[in-house]
Amino acid sequence: YQAKRDRTGVEVYESKRDSNTPDRLGLLGDLRRALDAGEVELHYQPKVRFDGHVAGLEALVRWVHPERGRVPPDEFIAIAESSGLMPHLTEYVLETALGQVARWRAQGLEVPVAVNVSPRDVHSPGFAGAVAARLARHGVPAGALQLEITEHVLLEDPQRAADTLAGLTGHGVKMSLDDFGTGYSSLVHLRRLPVSELKIDRSFVARLAVDTEDAEIVRCTVDLAHSLGLLVVAEGVEDDETWERLRDLGCDAVQGWLVAAAMPPQETTAWLRARGVHGWHRPTTALPPSTPA
Ligand code: C2E
Ligand code: MG
Ligand code: MG
Ligand code: MG
Fold first, then answer.
1. Which residues form a coiled coil (predicted)?
2. Which of 110, 131, 192, 195 could potentially form a cystine with 177 if both were Cys, beta carbons 3.0 to 4.6 Å apart?
């Protein structure tokens, strides 16, 4: 194990990205089988604007292993990424998400869906064309699909990444820059990536209401993004106070447990129907006081 310090100085332990331990090989094989068997599911988490309008849904992959139970996406995404299974996983996710978007559209629910893609995908030749072909096959307009990327796409082969992203936006697919503020965020990246949305990482949002430095970082990020013509979404919004701060800072939309956690497809359908044209609104009645301990 490697000891690392996170940005708050707390020591965190991460398992080494060792791609050939028996454990990882076992999980990899199981993931491959689960994909083939259709056992991997997508859940959907709403992104809402401050007026309540549902701006979109993010598709988040969920895998319940028969023996280990729920495996966190961060864990198996890393395994897929380092093993070459990633393109297969992404195909699966895109196929599932687009099938769902097509069904929702047929029911009059026209909400865009965002799919997370990895640097591997963006570097694989023909990715942009394959996405366009898949959209056409499902009869889904490109504007109903958003792809979330991170700055990591620029690490390996920036030119190829730029070509793929240009191909995607050329087809009308919208790009979103995920986890902004983590790692080695750079203004150069913002200029080079053809994104129309920036997502502020949860690590800055979580303590926004109590940490003045985090609040300043968010304020600057919102202003910068807006001056570049980007929409700003805050990730991981869990309480009212954070929602209010973000609204006051001019953020455009939020995603987080305050609104809804990622939900299975049927629950998402019900959620969308219940909100309908009125969108999502914070409960106006105060919660009953909690029982004293
Ligand atoms: P992400 O794309 O930044 O997704 C946001 C993560 O924050 C999700 O974790 C979501 O469940 C979680 N989250 C949302 N609201 C809140 C909140 O209010 N509080 C807290 N504490 N957490 C919240 P999840 O689903 O575990 O996914 C983790 C990461 O795994 C994602 O981060 C994304 O990078 C990756 N991932 C998930 N699905 C896929 C996929 O289909 N393909 C790829 N390539 N990566 C994926
Ligand atoms: Mg994401
Ligand atoms: Mg994120
Ligand atoms: Mg993340």
1. none
2. 195
Determine what percent of the chain falls in helix, strand and coil, rounding each to the nearest 5.
45, 20, 35
Amino acid at 143: G
pTM: 0.90
**Token pair of 73 as six digits:** 């996406």
CA of 194 to the centre of ligand 3 (A): 18
Q: pLDDT, tens digit, for every residue of 169-206?
A: 999 999 999 999 886 767 777 888 899 999 999 999 99
Phi, psi of 190 (to 5 degrees): -60, -35
Closest CA to 55 of 263, 248, 255: 255
ipTM of the complex: 0.98
Q: For a pocket test of ligand 1, which of 116, 175, 179, 197 has the largest count of ligand atoms closer than 8 A to its C-beta?
A: 116
Q: Whose CA is nearest to atom 19 of ligand 1?
A: 236
Can you tell me the distance from the alpha carbon of 81 to that of 102, in angstroms, rounded to the nearest whole number? 28
pLDDT tens digits along 39-91: 999 999 999 999 989 999 999 999 999 899 999 999 999 999 989 999 999 99
Query: How far does residue 292's CA lie from ligand 1's centre (Å)?
Result: 34
